[in-house]
Recover the amino acids of this structure.
């Protein structure tokens, strides 16, 4: 895609599917395990407050790709969140998107709520920055697809990236000028 992005490696789809199935069979939830710090992989937390957690995607297709989720196990944002809860969560999504764009070269930030009852039922938003110069045919869903491989990021680089995004987060309610 873009020469500013790290090299790619194949997404370990079979390992991932087995892991998801094992977690579900145990009656557990991936995001709940990230929240309570019982997941076997130490996710790089970018932001956390009493209600929300934000962490780097373990299998990013774009540099700076984060997941934003309520800490409470919620499976349907339209039915299970009040308007106030939804808007509070979207405020965090917006703040994270701006912090990501201030950290890595970004043409546009994608924000989607993805997941399913078969895999990750816990509501979460994918917040992913499209780097400048990506050809149109490689944008949108194609840019997010793990079929194109995932970025190879050493743990130290992930930790540094999480810290950089965290340092660009504006306090809640802070006035922001322009972009």
């Amino acid at each position: 895609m873009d020469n500013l992005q790290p090299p790619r490696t194949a997404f370990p789809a079979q390992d991932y599917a087995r892991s998801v199935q094992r977690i579900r069979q145990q009656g557990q939830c991936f995001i709940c395990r990230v929240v309570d710090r019982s997941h076997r992989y130490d996710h790089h937390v970018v932001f956390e407050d009493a209600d929300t957690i934000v962490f780097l995607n373990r299998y990013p297709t774009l540099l700076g790709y984060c997941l934003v989720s309520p800490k409470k196990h919620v499976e349907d944002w339209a039915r299970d969140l009040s308007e106030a809860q939804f808007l509070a969560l979207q405020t965090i999504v917006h703040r994270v998107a701006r912090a990501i764009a201030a950290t890595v070269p970004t043409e546009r930030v994608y924000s989607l709520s993805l997941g399913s009852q078969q895999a990750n039922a816990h509501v979460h938003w994918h917040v992913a920055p499209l780097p400048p110069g990506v050809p149109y045919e490689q944008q949108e869903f194609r840019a997010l697809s793990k079929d194109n491989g995932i970025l190879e990021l050493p743990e130290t680089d992930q930790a540094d990236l999480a810290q950089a995004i965290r340092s660009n987060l504006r306090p809640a309610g802070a006035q922001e000028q322009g972009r």
User: Anything to note?
Assistant: The first helix runs from residue 13 to 25. The mean pLDDT is 90.
